[in-house]
């Protein structure tokens, strides 16, 4: 999409509005998938649940990370198979857990005894993964203060989950949104490995590592590229494999064809950040833009502003999203 296309939209829409370029999403998604190799990719729906984005990601074979019953119902209504859904939200409502279980969502996160109790009651036997609190150093929106537990507590929770009939299958973390500090990813992986090994010493065989989101984009300064971070992550996982007793395929498993086998690594990713980045990068005062009125310039700013999130209130929302 070019500025002249955006200019055309300016002529027909009220401001503010949001323009998302599907080609950029497609390109970035393919790049991401090629780089992660056998790991699975999940789009955090909270970033933007626009139907055309969902449709595109479905076509590209991406799964979805969901945090609420509403997101679940919406995706099921769009024909998304529950096998493509996970929830890394460790504090779910009973209704959401029930619906997820009834709908066939396989993987659910937790980080407390209270959540285990709910899962046991409303999703007995389900596959659950513990959310680890990791350093969020270098991120602009830390998340570890509200979610996650330390390594030892994580293992205690995994053990309790197993005793109560759940299937404790893995570990997840989130380095915080817009994390530009590469060492933070390494530390988080090392901590995950600690949980992995400790769990194994208690007879638990974990098989899923979910590294969450947090991939940065270029705002006012240059951030490490997603490809670079993924390569780093893959390298660290390889390295952790070699120096420990855990079996390699457990840590970095395979997603084989029709059926999930062994274990796998999951990446949660907000592709919209990248769709916006194109505009951000190429932004320079252009003749068309200087012609716009103040309100139109404000919309241009919106295009280049911070990450796109599902708006919290209607008032916060851009009036329309064009995809
Ligand atoms: C569980 C989970 N996964 C993925 C994301 C997306 O993170 P980001 O936008 O930083 O990539 C979030 C954001 O809140 C999250 O909570």
Structural category? alpha/beta
Helix percent band: 40-55%
Q: Based on Cα principal axes, name the global outline.
A: globular
Encode the helix/strand succession as letters: HEHEHEHEHEHEEHEEHEHHEEEHHHE
CATH superfamily of the largest domain: Alanine racemase
Number of helices: 13
Through-space gap between termini? 11 Å
Ligands: pyridoxal-5'-phosphate
- What's the CATH class of the largest domain, please? Alpha Beta
Q: What is the CATH-assigned architecture of the largest domain?
A: Alpha-Beta Barrel
Describe this structure in words.
Helix 7 (151-163) crosses helix 8. The protein folds into two domains: 22-255, Alpha-Beta Barrel (TIM Barrel), CATH 3.20.20.10; 265-322, no CATH class. It is globular. 45% of the residues lie in helices and 15% in strands. The protein is of the alpha/beta class and 323 residues long. Helix 5 (94-103) links the parallel strand 4 (85-87) and strand 5 (107-110). Mean pLDDT is 77; it is low at 244-263 and 273-320.
Question: What features would you highlight for this structure?
Answer:
binds pyridoxal-5'-phosphate, 323 residues, 13 helices, 14 strands, 8-stranded parallel beta barrel, 2 domains, alpha/beta
């Amino acid at each position: 999409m070019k500025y002249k296309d955006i200019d055309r939209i300016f002529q027909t829409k009220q401001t503010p509005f949001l323009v998302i370029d599907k080609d950029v999403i497609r390109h970035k998604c393919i790049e991401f998938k090629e780089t992660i190799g056998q790991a699975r990719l999940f789009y955090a729906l909270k970033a933007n649940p626009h139907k055309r984005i969902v449709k595109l990601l479905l076509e590209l074979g991406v799964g979805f990370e969901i945090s609420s019953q509403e997101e679940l119902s919406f995706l099921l209504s769009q024909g998304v198979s529950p096998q493509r859904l996970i929830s890394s939200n460790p504090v779910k409502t009973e209704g959401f857990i029930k619906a997820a279980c009834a709908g066939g969502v396989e993987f659910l996160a937790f980080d407390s005894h209270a959540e285990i109790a709910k899962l046991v009651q409303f999703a007995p036997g389900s596959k659950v993964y513990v959310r680890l609190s990791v350093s969020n150093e270098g991120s602009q929106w830390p998340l570890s203060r509200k979610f996650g537990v330390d390594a030892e507590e994580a293992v205690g929770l995994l053990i309790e989950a197993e005793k109560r009939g759940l299937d404790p299958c893995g570990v997840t973390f989130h380095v915080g949104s817009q994390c530009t500090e590469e060492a933070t990813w390494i530390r988080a992986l090392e901590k995950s490995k600690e949980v992995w090994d400790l769990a194994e010493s208690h007879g638990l065989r974990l098989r899923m590592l979910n590294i969450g989101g947090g991939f940065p984009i270029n705002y006012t300064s240059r951030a490490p590229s997603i490809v670079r971070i993924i390569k780093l992550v893959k390298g660290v996982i390889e390295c952790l494999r070699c120096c420990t007793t855990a079996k390699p395929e457990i840590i970095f498993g395979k997603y084989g064809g029709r059926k999930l086998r062994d274990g796998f690594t999951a990446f949660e990713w907000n592709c919209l950040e990248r769709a916006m980045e194109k505009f951000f990068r190429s932004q320079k005062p252009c003749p068309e833009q200087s012609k716009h009125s103040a309100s139109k310039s404000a919309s241009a700013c919106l295009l280049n502003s911070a990450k796109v999130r599902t708006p919290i209130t209607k008032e916060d929302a851009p009036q329309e999203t064009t995809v």
